[in-house]
């Protein structure tokens, strides 16, 4: 099923023509109306009129998070303030907030992209979407909300937390679709199983999981507990929020809406563009943003472009699951580690429950604290010893550093409502 079949299955040559036209338009507006870009073009040899092919984008400088912060609050605005109807800020997991503005057209366009995503995963008007992302300054909940209303589904603006209430909403209104972070989905599953609730008695069919990295193992764990399809959802406030890239029913990479964004993958160290299929940092340029166009934004998210055509018929290329942020990576004993590598190992072990934490004690000592099933605390120490050894060995094989592992009872570690804090770096505290 398609929301906008013509554009979702557009011939690639046509798509590239459209991208170039929109890119030229974006650059010309940005260089005229945004002092930051005006300055860049004034100082550089490259002028907007020199962009005559899509490859020429590589000649343009990057826009970084620091640039958005430096131009806070209104510096990146391309339209008069009367045209702005909405403000969002990024959740600021990585520092001070950035202001993101939407015109009426931008609000509508972001909702159109969400509508594509929902229809792509089989949503119909009689679906009920329980939106468990945080409402407020974050983009996550509101952008999804508007898109779902556009499709015509019933949206429950539940927000995160208050888990018992969430469960009764799901029961009373026969929720079919969840929009939720992976860490909250894991927590919800633990509460439901503690309460002895059977997810098959609910009406759930699918969940959209995004806003933080998670592994295929976590997807499988959540799918099998709730007996639903889990679709990966990627976005960032700087690019509207959710709806930038989304999985179709093939569940094999996320289609990135290329009529709205130009994507590039670069080597984060050298800034050089990498070919499709190679892992690197995702760089995005907005093509339809009215209030706040952004050119070559460095997302710091590590992924790759999947060049093969997708069986669903959409021609917009896919990106693979986000491996992590370049700034999430940490080093222990000289080895580069992404938190998600640890998560993948843990969630692949059946006895492991829903929550874990990585504590970096020193430059050569990492402790992985992990909650395990309650049944294992049955007084038989050998069970715990065996499990602990299994976890240590599997982690060592994955990250090449031998961690200390602490086994904990469920509920020991703190639960966060927004993005989970997985790494405690005592070295920098
Ligand atoms: P902040 O930059 O303050 O965290 P956002 O709320 O805009 O602000 O978060 C966007 C970021 O969340 C992305 O850049 C990415 O790192 C992460 N993210 C969003 N969706 C996913 C996803 N499906 N998989 C992995 N990471 C994701
Ligand atoms: Zn597809």
What this model shows, in words?
This protein is of the alpha/beta class and 429 residues long. It has 2 domains: 1-327, ANL, N-terminal domain (Rossmann fold), CATH 3.40.50; 330-428, 2-Layer Sandwich (GMP Synthetase, Chain A, domain 3). The protein has helices spanning 5-8, 12-33, 35-43, 65-70, 104-120, 139-151, 163-172, 182-194, 216-226, 339-347, 381-399, and strands spanning 84-89, 99-103, 128-131, 154-156, 177-180, 206-210, 229-236, 241-247, 254-256, 261-266, 280-286, 297-303, 305-306, 318-319, 324-325, 330-332, 335-337, 352-362, 365-372, 404-408, 423-425. Strands 4-3-5-6-7-8-9-14-13 form a 9-stranded mixed β-sheet, sandwiched between helices. Strands 10-11-12-15 form a 4-stranded antiparallel β-sheet. It has a 4-stranded mixed β-sheet with strand order 20-19-18-21. Helix 9 (216-226) runs parallel beside helix 10 (339-347). The longest helix is centred in the first third of the chain and has 22 residues, at 12-33. The radius of gyration is 22 Å and the shape is globular. The structure holds adenosine-5'-diphosphate (ADP) and zinc ion (ZN). Adenosine-5'-diphosphate is lined by residues 90-94, 138, 210-213, 232-237, 299, 301, 322, 325.
């Amino acid at each position: 099923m398609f929301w906008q079949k013509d554009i979702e299955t557009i011939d690639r040559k046509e798509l590239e023509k459209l991208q170039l036209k929109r890119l030229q338009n974006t650059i010309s507006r940005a260089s005229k109306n945004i002092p930051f870009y005006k300055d860049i073009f004034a100082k550089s040899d490259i002028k907007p009129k020199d962009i005559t092919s899509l490859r020429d984008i590589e000649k343009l400088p990057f826009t970084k998070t620091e640039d958005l912060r430096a131009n806070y609050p209104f510096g990146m605005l391309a339209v008069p303030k009367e045209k702005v109807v909405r403000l969002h800020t990024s959740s600021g997991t990585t520092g001070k907030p950035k202001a993101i503005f939407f015109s009426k057209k931008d609000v509508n366009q972001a909702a159109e992209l969400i509508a594509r995503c929902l229809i792509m995963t089989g949503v119909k008007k009689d679906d009920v979407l329980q939106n468990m992302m945080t409402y407020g300054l974050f983009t996550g909940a509101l952008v999804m909300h508007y898109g779902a209303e556009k499709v015509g589904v019933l949206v429950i603006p539940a927000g995160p937390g208050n888990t018992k209430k969430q469960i009764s909403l799901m029961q009373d209104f026969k929720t079919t679709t969840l929009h939720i972070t992976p860490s909250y989905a894991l927590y919800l599953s633990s509460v439901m199983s503690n309460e002895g609730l059977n997810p098959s008695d609910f009406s759930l069919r699918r969940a959209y999981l995004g806003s933080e990295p998670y592994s295929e193992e976590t997807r499988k764990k959540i799918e099998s507990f709730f007996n639903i399809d889990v679709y990966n959802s990627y976005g960032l406030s700087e690019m509207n929020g959710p709806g930038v890239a989304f999985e179709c029913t093939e569940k094999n990479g996320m289609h990135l809406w290329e009529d709205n964004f130009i994507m590039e993958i670069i080597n984060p160290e050298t800034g050089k563009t990498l070919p499709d299929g190679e892992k690197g940092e995702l760089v995005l340029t907005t093509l339809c943003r009215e209030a706040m166009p952004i050119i070559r934004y460095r997302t710091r998210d590590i992924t790759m472009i999947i060049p093969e055509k997708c069986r669903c018929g959409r021609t917009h290329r896919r990106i693979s699951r986000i491996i992590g942020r370049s700034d999430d990576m940490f080093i222990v004993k000289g080895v580069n580690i992404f938190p998600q590598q640890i998560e993948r190992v843990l969630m692949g072990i059946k006895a492991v429950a829903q929550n874990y934490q990585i504590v970096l004690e020193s430059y050569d000592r990492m402790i992985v604290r992990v909650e395990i099933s309650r049944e294992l605390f049955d007084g038989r120490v050998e069970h715990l010893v065996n499990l602990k050894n299994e976890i240590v060995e599997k982690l060592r094989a994955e990250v090449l550093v031998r961690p200390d592992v602490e086994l904990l009872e469920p509920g020991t570690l703190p639960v966060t409502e927004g993005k989970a804090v997985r790494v405690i770096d005592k070295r920098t505290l």
